[in-house]
Design goal:
Layout lengths: L1 E12 L2 E12 L3 E5 L6 H8 L8 E9 L2 E2 L5 H7 E4 L10 H11 L5 H14 L3 H4 L12 H13 L5 E5 L7 H14 L4 E5 L3 H7 L2 E6 L2 E7 H6 L4 H7 L5
Helix pairs in contact: 3-4, 3-6, 4-6
The structure holds adenosine-5'-diphosphate and magnesium ion.
The site of adenosine-5'-diphosphate (ADP) has 12 residues, from helix 1.
Amino acid sequence: MDILKINGLSVSYGNKKVLKDLSMNIIENKITAIIGPSGCGKSTLLTTLNLMIEENGGNFTGKILFKDKDMSSYKKDEIRRSIGMVFQKPTPFPFSIYKNLTYAPKYYGTKDKVKLNSIVEDTLKKVGLFDEINDEMNMGANKLSGGQQQRLCIARALTVEPEILLLDEPCSALDVKNTANIEDMLLKFSKEYTIVIVTHNLSQAKRISDYTAFILDGEIIEYGETEEIFTNPKDNRTKEYIEGIYG
Ligand SMILES: Nc1ncnc2c1ncn2[C@@H]1O[C@H](COP(=O)(O)OP(=O)(O)O)[C@@H](O)[C@H]1O
Ligand SMILES: [Mg+2]
């Protein structure tokens, strides 16, 4: 099923048009990679998909359907709960680990301590942090290592049971080991979540994604099965990009 249907999406910051008439569907419970050179509009696309673009100074035209219903017919809160976002640089809140993970559930109305504790435990287990930090729940989250912080941020996004996870170059600040860790985790997640990941790392896209979209200068040049895009690109610009000629 197509959980997101993007139709004729254009996004501008002031009069600078950054995404141009972009159409693509995102398939449920699959990993979709967004690739393309720096500045082509990848982050703009992700921020539009969870309706943060206006807060970022942009605006969009076109239609985005989430589960066949126009995005604009949902409350923004509902969208942000269902469509979580993780950024390039780990961004834990300047609170304890525990509070990082209970913040959103509390905001959305969960008050029961036992329930909150189980959310904390479940999400830490999902990102493989539970055994590492179980005794340090009240420690400041910013004391964790970079890789742990990024896993905490992913756990935080999971605390409100999203359906889609948007990840904007989540491994670009991490070393090989932490990157492998997160890739393994994402592969397991795709049973439960739909994942859209922006990545600069083409071998990462190849390793983990089912579908890949190549964006150049705000336009989708090619979108299809990852295997096909990387072994048999239809467009010469895709071929040049994956061969490392530009970007
Ligand atoms: N908040 C903003 N205000 C104005 N221009 C922006 C803003 N965010 C991004 N841009 C511009 O939009 C273009 C696409 O940026 P971005 O979506 O960040 O690309 P990518 O993630 O592919 O590197 C760039 O030219 C960038 O300078
Ligand atoms: Mg970006």
